[in-house]
Hints:
The structure holds 2 protein chains of 2 kinds. Chain A is an alpha/beta fold. Chain A contains 10 helices and 10 strands. In chain A, strand 7 (about 155-160), helix 6 and strand 8 (about 185-190) form a beta-alpha-beta unit. Chain B has one domain (about 5-255). Chain B contains 12 helices and no strands.
Amino acid sequence: MKQSVLRVNNLQKLYGDTIAVDDVSFTVAANEIVGLLGPNGAGKTTTINMVLGVLEPTAGAVSINGTDIAVNRSLALRRTNFSAVYTPLPGNLTVYQNLHIFSLLYGVKDFKRRIDSLIERFDLKKFRFTKCGVLSSGEQTRVSLAKAMLNEPNLLLLDEPTASLDPSVARDIREVIRDFAVKDGAGILWTSHNMYEVEEVCDRVLFLSHGKILLEGDPKILPKEYGKANLEELFITVAREPLTLME
Amino acid sequence: MNFTRVFAIVLRQFYLVSASFARFMPLFIWVAVDVVMWGFLTRYLNTVAAAGFNFIPAMLGAILLWDFFIRIMQGITAAFFEDIWSHNFLNLFSTPITISEYLTGLVVSSITNSLVGIAVMLFLAVVVFGLSFLSYGLVIVPCLLILFMFGIALGIIASAIVLRLGPAAEWFIWPIPAIVSPFVGVLYPVTILPGWMQYVSHLLPPSYAFAALRATVVGGAVFWPGLFISIALAVLYIFLSCKLFTSTYRHAVRTGLIARYSAESLS
């Protein structure tokens, strides 16, 4: 059995009387890509924020590489990284400057070589000295993904990483990320609303609805188990009639 | 404390300032305007006032030191605001950086940026207006230290206020030095203030520094215990400001403010 890089136990987040995340538990193993799926407001981003330590859970625990984030946040985040479509890197710095600063923040050894290889891998060579703010949203996403791989993370959190990419670039990026999981041994938690992408990339999916994990399983098998033609149909059922799946 | 991460915050500020005329100019332009304006005013006062009193160390020196304090304070808040303006909190605080490393980075950024303004200030004051720091004697050392430490404390408190109240609260921060100024007696002894203002001034470390400088200029005795009290107060305020920032950050993490900080108005 592969070692878990992320272990989430009974995670809960309350905002007053509103339950954003309700008793969620799951693991992500090395070399595994886990899809965190659900309709808007299901609690996906809230869960990711708690894993990153930028949001304190009301209850429960997050352990990354065996380190409880509430006990030693700095150590837990050393080999963790993330990329989200809603958090581009500062637009007033160039691609290289941003990667340089984040490589220092993550304590990357031999950062020059690492930055060069990521610039190459994400086809950013011609934007090396361009300020991130003037890049297209797809180019900014690639810079953000390069940042996310700077510290060769054991755990990579990707919140809709291909949302702003055209299908051709999105496919390339999926391959890079898939490679990263297979060759570099990273565990990846991936959110997306593109069910075809999820089916292609993820080893396992978790369906969140109203802050709870409703379903869990292999994205290629799960739809059939619930009598649905594909993952998208299953997603729509989770979003509109979650109770029918619990019967 | 990981100094590589501290350096990352300082480097970020260096990259921004060195590439932007709009960021580089304010490091010294307002300071230069202040020194020139007050320099000519004090020169004029020297010609019309009774002979024997030199307004240059009394007024220009005081203004220069007050500008030094403002540079330090605003150096911290400006570096902090860069993260707000670029919506960088989520990227930044999901790295291994600790709050103490972040605050140290802001302080070091402020010192390096302030050096530019201070150099221009000193050049104009010493070369153009003939201000001699030797006329203050040794008392200048604790006075600079007090203003430096109080600038750090107020800069961190100001950053905590903006972190708590949201980006729009930035407009509360810029006038803080002007609000504090009447209480600390930059240009006059605090004894002329009404009673309640004097009580406030006793709690503000710069009051003791400016009183000591004035005493030196007029040839009076420096109240050294006051300076030691002032240093102790400044140390206390730095400690309390760090506590305030840390607890504000924890509140932001608990309530989700950090994750949602790009929103314009947060409560």
